[in-house]
Amino acid sequence: MEAVAALIAVLGTLLGSGITYVFQRRTTAYGEELARRERLRQERIDAYCMYAGALHNYRRMLVHRWFAEHERPGEEDMPALLRDVYRLRSEAHEALFRMRLLTRDPALEEVARSALESVTGLHGRGLDRAGLDARRTSSKRAVEDFVTTAAQYLDEPRDTAGARPRSLGRQAAR
């Protein structure tokens, strides 16, 4: 009888240890998943901010170049301005690549590319002041649209190619 009681005690202890191990393992995995999601979220915030900032700087330099070329000819070093324009365009492309690696969503990529194309439209030769003003407005709106759209992707529930955030899925269903 004592042997049966001892066996039951040992089995109970083993069962309790096994259950504790399973729960601790699940808790650890859950904590690691939360930490991974938060790191990804922070990386996305950084990438989206870098891209929007790069677009803003590129846009600002294109506008500055237009004014230097059309309203203050000869006052600025045009080759240096052009080098700055190309450098900022490269920075915008680099930021776009980083953003694409962290998101992998076609809809957000399209909004991001559209913003870059809109800003690059300020580079056009033969723009008059009215054309410049129209492209300034549209490029500013495109950058703001990117920021608004990107904000919806910060708390993506899952990281799968082509998956939409819940907030966009509900809007699309309406």
Concise summary:
The chain is 81% helix and 0% strand. It is mainly α and 174 residues long. The chain has one domain: Four Helix Bundle (Hemerythrin (Met), subunit A) (Up-down Bundle), CATH 1.20.120.
What's the structural domain tally?
Answer: 1
CATH topology: Four Helix Bundle (Hemerythrin (Met), subunit A)
Q: How much beta, percentage-wise?
A: under 5%
* Element-level helix/strand string: HHHHH
Number of strands: 0
Q: Termini, distance in Å?
A: 69 Å
Report on the structure:
By secondary structure, the chain is an all-alpha fold. The chain is 81% helix and 0% strand. The protein has five helices and no strands. The chain has helices spanning 2-70, 78-103, 106-120, 129-151, 166-173. Helix 1 (2-70) packs antiparallel against helix 2, helix 1 packs parallel to helix 3 (106-120) and helix 3 runs antiparallel to helix 4. The radius of gyration is 27 Å and the shape is rod-shaped. It starts with a helix and ends with a helix. Mean pLDDT is 85; it is low at 157-174.
